[in-house]
């Protein structure tokens, strides 16, 4: 606490202190007229603002810039005015709560426009109340409480060598005496005993869900399954897609309950977009097998983007491009949904389709590849099949 | 006025002191000094927003039902009546349309979250650019980085709870990212979601994380952050009497307590005011989540924007397979590696800088950003990198607003992501050095008074006035970098074994890179040149002055 304030790069310049009218040379930490606080508050602030006689404040007078009595009185009145405003606004908040009682048709705030008014009324009064308290307190600080320029020493952080070595010695004596260092059998078996218990909570997490197995690779689509327009239970006929450029989002018909859609889990795997193309629009790169999955220029792609799983919902008929609005992966609908731009890597899986005896579009099997974001073994089966060829 | 506490207060104090021995600690802590500077209030905003988040969060959880049970809505909001939705979404509608003030609380919660992360980032940048993370405060910086990461997750999970369309899509993206992880991806996804996406568990699990686990961690980290700050005391900006040995500012009691209280109310007032008049996340307009539909122009909360941008502009060019097993780098790199680099970079910087400069001293006086040009340049490069990713998260909105081709915005951001930070670094470093030169000039000549004088010889000069003591103190407080001596060989030409390895040479190169650019002021006599004799050269002092290095 007797550090020299002119430490390298940090001390105030003595000349500067002289210029601003302070004592200058005094060493920090030495008391000035008995004003240093019990915790070692130090003081060498400008002294012109406060007379040191009869000072009753908690900090040394040269660090305390008192407000004049007149200023304090004015401050008190202004702060009080703010607090009155806050009080009234607070009352206003409670009043505005009860201004919107539920009516016979339900809550008044159920109507969006009334709800908006209620929101503004309650929010507005709350805002005024909070702001006014803040404003009143600010006036209090700036007009009534003195302005302080209190200096306080930074603690010397590292302990001195003696304390450190004393601690180190004490610690090691304790460790030795406890036998922890000297009795390895006990120590090691204790560590061994902790190990399974540490793993136990992780083991308990095992039942948070089933193992993936091959679930991600299959969907409920199977040969002969009808498709319905998403959001309805209306089956789709090939003629519904008569004009090239048309697109329909479709789901499988719920085999257990045709009136209701399949579960959300199934929806997120089975949803398809049916796109009608002119048969000669298909790219020559498409294989015979892929063309065989289409019906009369109608091709069915999984709607779930292979990047991270958003619905690839935008289709531009003139360029045959399917765009995912999340991250803009772009697929060529005329070329087996090959990726033409963006972060996706795999093409959208194709759902083989055909028409049944009644003219309805039905699936002719499951998707050509796993649906959705690419996962670890999504392409493994394909790889193995290619190696066998 | 009496200096004896009133009897009731004294007996309450004695009651506590009898049990906790508080008098001495209490006084010491009430005397804690807070340096006065506006930038110290950024962290306060974050703290106060966090308090507001807890208060409003408790209220929301009174009515919110974290359930994915499908229900047919028949609540007060007529436009969605009869629509099938999860209970989570329906109960959120209930809070908005059937609980008086519910919508206000929800909006306060959402705005406070946005401001929490924003203030936290601003606070972090302040600490970075002023070097306030330096010894002894490195560990508190690490805690701060952890708070940042947990806050982002906390925000993401909270955003997901209402189960509206955009939030469900956010969860979908999260699941897609999980799936992309090599080997364990599908397992992790199945364990988190209780099976396939979306399953029936994810909302209640995110709810658990959002209202218990992560806030608990945040509370613990924030408490530790403040305790450490309290124990080590604040840094301060250079100025009169402000040294490495003592801190100057307002004491906790009575001044700062009232100031801080006022600032809490102001923060709350601003957030409440925004919530009163600015709609945020109107989930009733988005509709419930279905995995099959989406709308274009979707934007996440701002702090997720950089992830979104990262996912958008990173191409699929580096995807590969190992024996048929997919390594989708088009997901892994933008979603995990790039944020990983950002956060790891933040976390290790104090230690890296200390290693480069070899500076093991304690620092309590903050750097002015210009006085650490390389650090400031790197910080700006980081901001540009983050900012480009963030803007790229809105590339579709940008493309539509300015009628630019969508793909062109993507190409633009890909190039800017690499060039922008480099340019940002170079320009910032130049500006810093320019400011350093001006500082030295101010120190040498004082400031330009704006008074033009004609000398007897007919020449015009601008009169310089001596700088104030405060300015001189501030400028002299500069902590000059000291380049390490080039000791690859000793004076006999014998190679120094410590500098011969790759590590030694790398260290020397980095050290020189970090320290070489500096406009020294330590030898400058303040005001040495502001007398009339210098006035004669005054007209070109601006160019002629401190050029020598």
UniProtKB/TrEMBL annotation, chain A:
Highest taxon listed in the record's lineage: Bacteria
Subcellular location field: Cell membrane
Listed Basic and acidic residues bias regions: 62-72
Bias (Gly residues) ranges: 21-37
Membrane topology classification: Multi-pass membrane protein
Coiled coil regions in record: none
Transmembrane domains' residue ranges: 79-100, 120-141, 189-205
Family per record: Belongs to the Rieske iron-sulfur protein family.
Function (record text): Iron-sulfur subunit of the cytochrome bc1 complex, an essential component of the respiratory electron transport chain required for ATP synthesis. The bc1 complex catalyzes the oxidation of menaquinol and the reduction of cytochrome c in the respiratory chain. The bc1 complex operates through a Q-cycle mechanism that couples electron transfer to generation of the proton gradient that drives ATP synthesis.
UniProt name for this protein: Cytochrome bc1 complex Rieske iron-sulfur subunit
Organism in which the protein naturally occurs: Lipingzhangella rawalii
From TrEMBL, chain B:
Membrane topology qualifier: Multi-pass membrane protein
Protein name from the UniProt record: Cytochrome bc1 complex cytochrome b subunit
Matching InterPro entries: Cyt_b/b6_C, Cyt_b/b6_N, Cytb/b6-like_sf, Di-haem_cyt_TM
TM region(s), chain numbering: 45-64, 110-129, 141-161, 173-194, 206-230, 251-278, 325-352, 372-391, 411-428
Top-level enzyme category: translocase
Residue span(s) of domain Cytochrome b/b6 C-terminal region profile: 239-434
Keywords on record: Electron transport, Heme, Iron, Membrane, Metal-binding, Transmembrane, Transmembrane helix, Transport
Gene3D superfamilies: Cytochrome Bc1 Complex, Chain C
Main location: membrane
A Pfam cross-reference name: Cytochrom_B_N_2
Segments forming domain Cytochrome b/b6 N-terminal region profile: 12-238
Keyword Metal-binding recorded: yes
Its EC number(s): 7.1.1.8
Reactions mediated catalytically: a quinol + 2 Fe(III)-[cytochrome c](out) = a quinone + 2 Fe(II)-[cytochrome c](out) + 2 H(+)(out)
Localization annotation: Membrane
Cofactor(s), by name: heme
Taxonomic source organism: Lipingzhangella rawalii
Residue ranges of the region described as Disordered: 470-500, 521-549
Superkingdom in the source lineage: Bacteria
